[in-house]
């Protein structure tokens, strides 16, 4: 037994005797029949680089940092976290892979439903969507997201979308700055020329006013008017000449300044136009590149859609062929079942025929066995009876008669006498006909042998010898 105390960021998870499920505590007695595990509840930073793809099939990387820890204010969530940490440390690969799998899965699903422009411009809303969906999955492990920071989106090598977009913005800002500088320079030069002209005009005005004032002051000397009239006239003419000369010089200077100002304005306007043409050329090149990338993306998307359509059509054709094959297979199965049923019926019929033949053979066996028992197991007597009963001798006689009918043979007649006597010397008996038939048999066999050369079968008997035809006939007549 020991008394355990957890640190400020730790909890004790105690199981064993006297505890229904898991007991969470900061300090407690631990008995020998109980087990105690200490787990840390401080948050942990998880840094990921999630590779995702937008709805336009444009891949990019989302660097993200999530601060995740257990929900210490919820006992149920803390219990779930304790069960998760019972066999793993919070820095173990199991926990890292679990959190990373949840974050990457939800982020990829969310990005797949958004365009690249929506992801790039709606960073705050995108971050909130990822936060909500990941938090919903982490609730089942008792974890809560304390902070989530989605960094600047990064291009995947070979797909420099953000790089080109940044270059476009930078070039537009640089071009606008160059245009503003050219406009400011033009305004400065024009303003300087205008200031010089105004200075010359104000000087001429002051000179004219001075002339008027001088003339007025000269007119005041009425006493010396006559005396100095000539001098004044001369002075006036000189002054007028000087004024005319100054006016001519001023006019010439004004014309030169006006010409220079106009030339400067034309040069400035042409320089601005030339610079605008150069910038417009660069802008058109960038627009062409942008349109090229856009067309590539559109054609790629169209090709992907056509590929998916072809795949669906192929799957549908495969499904139809499978169903047709299943229908043919079902029909073949039914035909096989029908053939099997017919074969079974034929087999049953043959089996019944065989059983009938077996029964007939058994009946014949019993019949033969009964006959053999009736003649005291004398096989020869049973054979003779069967041949007589089945008319074998009659068939033999008939066949011989048909065979020799057109040969015109010599006919011999035998008479054994005593036809009226029985086999035992008596009168007519029941076996008299059979005895007469047996008496007639040897001469018949002799006649067959004489005319055809064929010996009788061994079971009938043998002849007395192969004698010449004349002697045999003589013996028959003598008998």
UniProtKB/TrEMBL annotation:
Keywords: Cell membrane, Coiled coil, Lipoprotein, Membrane, Palmitate. One of its GO terms (cellular component) is caveola. It is found in: Cell membrane; Membrane, Caveola. Residues 12-185 form the Band domain. Pfam families: Band_7. Its main location: membrane. CDD domains: SPFH_flotillin. It is a lipid-anchor. InterPro entries: Band_7, Band_7/SPFH_dom_sf, Flotillin_fam. It comes from the Eukaryota. SUPFAM superfamilies: Band 7/SPFH domain. Belongs to the band 7/mec-2 family. Flotillin subfamily. May act as a scaffolding protein within caveolar membranes, functionally participating in formation of caveolae or caveolae-like vesicles. PANTHER family: FLOTILLIN-LIKE PROTEIN 3, FLOTILLIN-RELATED. This is Flotillin-like. The lineage of its organism: Eukaryota, Viridiplantae, Streptophyta, Embryophyta, Tracheophyta.
